[in-house]
Design a protein that fits this description.
With about 425 residues, the chain is of the alpha/beta class. It contains 15 helices and 17 strands. The longest helix has 19 residues, at about 265-285.
Length: about 425
Amino acid sequence: MADSSVSSTDTPAGTYFRKGFGLKADVQGDLATDYDGRLVDLIKTRDYALTAGEGNARTTVRLAREFGFCYGVERAVEYAYQTRKKFPERRIFLAGEIIHNPHINHKLREMGIIFLPHNPSPNEASFDFSEVVPDDVVILPAFGVTVTDFQQLRDLGCVMVDTTCGSVLNVWKRVEGYARDGFTALIHGKYYHEETRATASQAMKYPGGRYLVVRNMDEARIVGDFIEGRRSAEEIRTRFLDASSPGFDPERDLARIGVANQTTMLARESLAIGAEVRASVERARGEAYAAENFRTFDTICSATQDRQDAVLALLDAPDDVAGDGTQDATETGPVDVMVVVGGYNSSNTISLAALCAERVTTYHIEDAQCIDPVTATIHHRTNAGHNDVSTPGWLAFEHPVRVGLTAGASTPNNKIAEAIARIFATRGIDPDSIR
């Protein structure tokens, strides 16, 4: 890790690991068994489209060309498996969830890894490490942990296995740089999310470091209203009490602003928020002031961006090549529905579902088990991401059906393959017959 969050000299020799244990070959078989999926491998060989069935039951599943596990998630999961292999007799703790996918977290629990629950309250410690002793091992998740959490573990002297995603580290460097140069970090994200809390903590490594977290464009406009004199400092303090650094003073701390974001947010919204706040600074204080006192950088991770771009490309595709390699008029045209697979608390999956929902009926499912072929019902979350809904007859079309499919960056291939199988089964097609 190149920034000043940690370094090899910060921890005793042999207690901090960020590059695994050289056991990749030893765990690859287990990873393949746990997470690979036949239908995903097959659909990729068929130009990301599988077609089966006859007449009105004919069904095409189109898979976005970027989907599922990203490099950062693969690395985090692999390191967790390596850790169990390296320390078969030690207690292993995990700070929160390794990633936001229930299947993977369940597998880690089956491996005897003990989960320390994340405390979403910004005014309390993120994790309770009171059970951890020096002989234990603690895995840091892909989201990272706060500076305070890291310091507590370092003081304990336990072994730390750091799986923090490189894209998250890049945002940390940006936020730390803002604090070093006297800028307040304006972070587009969810203030209670593990990643955002860890990112915000980087600003506090410098005296006078400050942060403010905005969830969406509406909250960004509230900040802009204050900058342009339409809202009071007290309104800002009250509105963002849980989403700002201790002692936040809007008049002092919104004079110089640097924009960053939680890496899994909707990319276009993050960019628009940066542009909106800068426009407010320019209107209130002039372009010359903004040039000196406002900074913004696109810190959405490339994997998040690639998956968002790929699903838009799928939705924009004017026609389709059938899974057997031939053009068929029954498969041309836009998809009838979209299915998005991923944890209900997975921010990047929620963003994908929101993108899709703007264009077509979309079902965000946590797992393939949410699709019930027997009753032809799908159990899903609403587009707002809060309410569980059951929709019967969701594929009861009187014509050949085109189903679009994508998955969040923490969704393994076997769960995507199971979703494909259940989509076909819902249409009365035996997925085992698809070769």
